[in-house]
Design brief:
The chain starts with a strand and ends with a helix. With about 190 residues, the chain is an alpha+beta fold. The longest helix is centred in the middle third of the chain and has 22 residues. The chain contains 7 helices and 5 strands, in the order E-E-E-E-E-H-H-H-H-H-H-H. About 50% of the residues lie in helices and about 20% in strands.
Amino acid sequence: MFDYLEGQLVEVGALRCVVAVGGIGFEVLTPRTESLVGKEQVRLWIQMVVPEGEPPRLFGFARPEEREVFRRLLKVPGVGAQTALQILASLGLEDLREAIETRDPSILTRVSGIGKKRAVRILTELTEGWIPSGQLPREHLVEALVRLGLSANEARTLVRDVLNATPEATDEEVLRAALRRHAEREVKR
């Protein structure tokens, strides 16, 4: 399955873009197209959804964390891919996190088509097992470090340490810092 698409940004529209990869243009539905305007190359973390009786659709996200929240939204009864996309497009990840952490349905009711009853249901489903924003893991970074030969425990510790020191760091910055710390530890041994 696809994990991400990286390629030339050919077109940007409302909640969609086209990314050219290897001579093929992929239409990707995405919540934050305004962040793509002016870029030539993009990397979008992909979730493929195959609605019954319809062609497959690709949904793309700027960060793996956004994709993970999209996946969690898809598990909520009555929330399909379009509704999940609309929630992320209308609120963004930070406001959705706030709604979940404070259990405030009024934040979700700002999304077109979501009333108070539906908002409460979505929050009830999402709250179970939710990790507060300050503790949101980046397990994909741990997996990447393990693939580079580190033990899972060491990788998890390095990612946690880097995120504690610089919580706003991008995935790339976290990986670089974690590898630098690992190399420094190895030199000391």
